[in-house]
Design a protein that fits this description.
Structural class: alpha+beta
Organism: Micromonospora radicis
Helix content: 25-40%
Largest sheet: 8 strands, mixed
CATH superfamily of the largest domain: Ribonuclease Z/Hydroxyacylglutathione hydrolase-like
Strand order of the largest sheet: 7-6-5-3-2-1-15-16
Shape: globular
Protein name: MBL fold metallo-hydrolase
Pfam families: Rieske, SCP2_Rv3818
Number of strands: 27
CATH topology of the largest domain: Metallo-beta-lactamase, Chain A
Keywords: 2Fe-2S, Hydrolase, Iron, Iron-sulfur, Metal-binding
Distance between the termini: 49 Å
Strand content: 15-25%
CATH architecture of the largest domain: 4-Layer Sandwich
Number of helices: 16
InterPro entries: RibonucZ/Hydroxyglut_hydro, Rieske_2Fe-2S, Rieske_2Fe-2S_sf, SCP2_Rv3818
């Protein structure tokens, strides 16, 4: 099995029975904020796109690059579709001209022509990507590969049960706006960023240890930020709180925990994988490339500057009455929302900065009141500040997912009172009836489910499944004193009270080992 690195989470897998192109991303994403690093735009995409099969893990725009797919990927390719709860992915592919689809069933092995086998595991929580994420398992002639990209399954046993894996591709770096955009002292941002960076690596080590593959390939990050306004987010400034470490940092950190089987793929690197080993060649010397990272970024910044400026020029739509349009689009969704509206529990404020950089229009999405209205000087727990032009553009293109556009762009600042609230972001990625109805149904089912099984970790007996997204706490749970941390997403719980310390809701059932739950007073459901 030959794997050619094509940048970020993208790769081309070649076997004698067929080829698969995965997650090709080249064009800037999220309001021209994210670019692939290392740069992959100069690869021979005409050749790389001439494949038998195409797999895109999910609809995040650093995985689903519509312009690139339309221009460079053969429409003769069969699209391998994860079993997602909505038809959005298939609809998007059809709009680009693709006509051949293999609609997989979740975790079901499919044998393609020539003995090539594939299996896709789909994750379908409203917090998994934009309504869904997935991983691809491939086997040919006894060689097995898992492309986990940035999916976060509760465990990898489904893949391990199919046989020993020889190549494991997975995310290790950040792909979020936290904590950089929050209006906090720099010392706090650094502390929170370091915590997140450490959690990212801890989660990666846990996945690697679960699967025990022969070779580990760090992929799906980091992006680079070439706009002057965002340049500080690149991990080149000696900031220990930067959440975007690159592949060379991965190798160094992996070595600290005893990892010796890491393989980095640059765009154009080729790894020949067999059951007995892997041989990898690179287009340029690996160590030399990362030693000159700043120079590479500076060269990219100058080369991509016209692209960024052209995108910026397209954002303004002064003809749009933002308040009026938001009312028309969001109020019907608020009327339909039960769980998300209750979960947010209060008004969310948007401060829109005008073209002059000074004037501000403040608009509130009032979840309890089920309306969009001007800000009335009330207290809010969540506040976002961004350019009016960005919201105009979202309304102009009918964007249904502000998380997969505005928030991931990092072109905003945020402030909140109290804990993180996942329902805020869940709502703003569900700005369509189809998405909202799915999310409401998921939370309804989740709310009614009962997790009866308990496990013991240290001095505590807790429910086996994390209240957040059902991660197996026997694998991901760490108890320190009276606190439990689920390492899958870094959520923390106060065990004596059962209270979630990371977000509102999500109470855990817990009591000291050997004592009854009633003695401890923890919630029993």
């Amino acid at each position: 099995m030959r794997v050619t690195g094509t940048g970020h989470a993208s790769m081309r897998i070649d076997t004698a029975a067929g080829s698969i192109l995965c997650d090709p991303w080249v064009n800037p994403a999220y309001f021209a904020s994210w670019f692939p690093f290392p740069d992959n735009s100069l690869l021979d995409w005409e050749t790389l796109g001439d494949v038998d099969y195409l797999y895109v893990s999910h609809l995040h725009r650093d995985h689903f690059d519509a312009a690139h797919l339309k221009r460079y990927v053969s429409k003769k390719a069969t699209v391998l579709l994860p079993e997602f709860p909505t038809s959005e992915m298939e609809d998007e592919f059809r709009a680009l001209g693709f006509t051949k689809f293999l609609k997989t069933r979740n975790e079901e092995v499919v044998e393609l022509d020539g003995g090539l086998k594939i299996m896709i595991q789909a994750l379908t929580s409203p917090t998994d990507g934009p309504i869904g994420d997935s991983s691809l398992w491939v086997e040919y002639d006894g060689v097995r590969l898992l492309n986990q990209n940035d999916a976060r399954p509760t465990d990898l046993s489904t893949f391990a049960e199919l046989g020993h894996v020889h190549a494991h591709m997975l995310q290790f770096s950040g792909a979020i706006w936290y904590p950089m955009v929050y209006e906090l002292p720099q010392s706090a941002k650094t502390a929170f960023g370091k915590q997140k960076r450490d959690r990212q690596f801890d989660r990666t080590w846990r996945y690697i240890d679960d699967l025990k593959a022969d070779h580990v390939f760090p992929i799906a990050g980091p992006p680079c930020f070439l706009d002057d306004e965002l340049w500080q987010f690149n991990d080149i400034h000696g900031d220990e709180g930067n959440i975007f470490p690159d592949q060379s940092v991965f190798l160094a950190e992996y070595a600290k925990v005893g990892g010796t089987n890491g393989i980095v793929l640059l765009p154009g690197s080729v790894s020949e994988i067999t059951t007995s080993g892997a041989t990898t060649t690179h287009p340029v010397p690996l160590e030399e490339f990362f030693a000159n990272k700043v120079a590479h970024l500076e060269e990219m910044r100058e080369r991509k500057r016209p692209i960024i400026e052209a995108e910026k020029a397209s954002w303004r739509h002064p003809e749009i009455d933002v308040l009026k349009e938001l009312k028309q689009r969001i109020e019907p969704l608020l009327d339909e929302s039960i769980y998300l509206a209750k979960g947010v529990g209060g008004p969310v404020r948007f401060d829109l900065v005008g073209y002059d950089g000074e004037s501000i229009e403040s608009i509130v999405v009032d979840f309890p009141g089920k309306q969009v209205r001007p800000y009335a000087d009330e207290k809010v727990r969540y506040r976002f500040r961004t350019e009016r032009a960005l919201v105009e553009h979202l309304l102009h293109i009918g964007e249904v997912d502000w998380v997969n556009s505005l928030f991931l762009s990092c072109r905003f600042s945020a402030a909140r009172i109290g804990q993180y609230n996942e329902f805020v972001y869940a709502f703003f990625k569900c700005l369509s009836t189809e998405r909202l109805q799915y999310a409401e149904g998921w939370y309804d089912e989740h709310e009614r489910s009962v997790d009866a099984e308990d496990i013991t970790i240290g001095d505590w007996t807790v429910q086996r499944r994390c209240p957040h997204l059902k991660a197996d706490l026997s694998r991901f749970g760490i108890v320190d004193g009276d606190q439990l941390t689920c390492q899958l997403h870094g959520w923390r719980f106060d065990l004596p009270s059962g209270r979630c310390l990371t977000s509102v809701g999500h109470k855990i059932r817990a009591h000291r080992a050997g004592e009854s739950a009633e003695v401890e007073g923890a919630e029993v459901r």
